[in-house]
Design goal:
This protein is α/β, with parallel strands linked by helices and 272 residues long. Helices cover 42% and strands 18% of the residues.
């Protein structure tokens, strides 16, 4: 029988968060395909397992995929792991999973630790529906546009950010979304875990020299009452058209038609 590709969620910090089933599968697998072989071996040593480990990150994934598919065809089970959390979620792994599925192999996900769900649980924000944004773009203009597009979303927003870009990201969020509540989670499940609560402006002032890994949870756009202008979304659209070089007349006409506001209100938003 062909082998199975197990997509294994691994701890995001505390190794004790590894599930019993994940520990068993990692111990039984003939091959572990890892984003980082060093961090994978630390985890494997923790559970007393010593399978063969191959690198399968964004650069090596294409090269290693034929080898991994051959192992599956030969009846060997393969465990796919990333540095932390679930493979394929803002991490490498999706291409290998797709290739294995297209080759007719069984793919079995092992649920487990997740910075997204951990942050949502700690935030206390509405999570019946949420939008995961992953890592925002690195370039400043692209990042601003990215947040402008999310400004009108009603769902709770969840995103990752690197420490050296956290302050600029918080500032861009504040400009695009206005003064909303935010929960900034740092080093979840680790020794220096911190769950900070406040507004976007306060967060920007608080995290002066950020260190560690960050997951940000931002409240969604407020509901629009009947007959009330959705000024947040309209303002975001105005800003995007300004950056694209539109004139005030062009922007006012577009916003008036799209959001059902008067030309006068659209002009007011342009001036704002």
């Amino acid at each position: 029988m062909p082998g199975t590709l197990y997509v294994v969620a691994t701890p995001i910090g505390n190794l004790e968060d590894l599930t019993l089933r994940a520990a068993r599968i990692l111990g039984e697998a003939a091959l572990v395909a890892a984003e980082d072989t060093r961090s994978a071996r630390v985890l494997l040593r923790h559970i007393g397992a010593s399978p063969k480990v191959v690198r399968s990150d964004a650069h090596a994934e294409a090269k290693q995929t034929p080898r991994i598919l051959a192992a599956l065809e030969a009846g060997q089970d393969v465990a796919l792991v990333t540095d932390a959390g679930a493979p394929g979620v803002s991490d490498p792994g999706a291409a290998l999973v797709r290739a294995a599925a297209e080759a007719g192999h069984r793919v079995s996900p092992l649920p487990g630790p997740s910075a997204v769900t951990a942050a949502l649980a700690a935030a206390g924000a509405p999570a019946d529906r949420f939008r995961f944004l992953g890592f925002p773009p690195r370039a400043e203009k692209a990042r601003v546009d990215f947040y402008q597009r999310a400004a009108s979303e009603r769902e709770t927003l969840v995103l990752f950010e690197a420490p050296h870009r956290l302050r600029s990201s918080l500032h861009a969020l504040w400009q695009a979304l206005g003064e909303r509540r935010v929960v900034v989670c740092r080093e979840l499940s680790k020794v220096y875990e911190e769950v900070w609560r406040g507004t976007l402006e306060e967060a920007h002032a608080y995290f002066v020299k950020p260190r560690g890994e960050f997951t940000i949870v931002v409240e969604g756009a407020p509901p629009v009452k009947i007959g009330e202008v959705d000024s947040i979304a309209a303002l975001g659209h105005i800003k995007m058209m300004q950056r694209a070089g539109a004139t005030r007349r062009e922007a006012a006409a577009a916003v008036s038609e799209r959001f059902g506001v008067s030309r006068r209100e659209a002009y007011r938003l342009w001036l704002r």
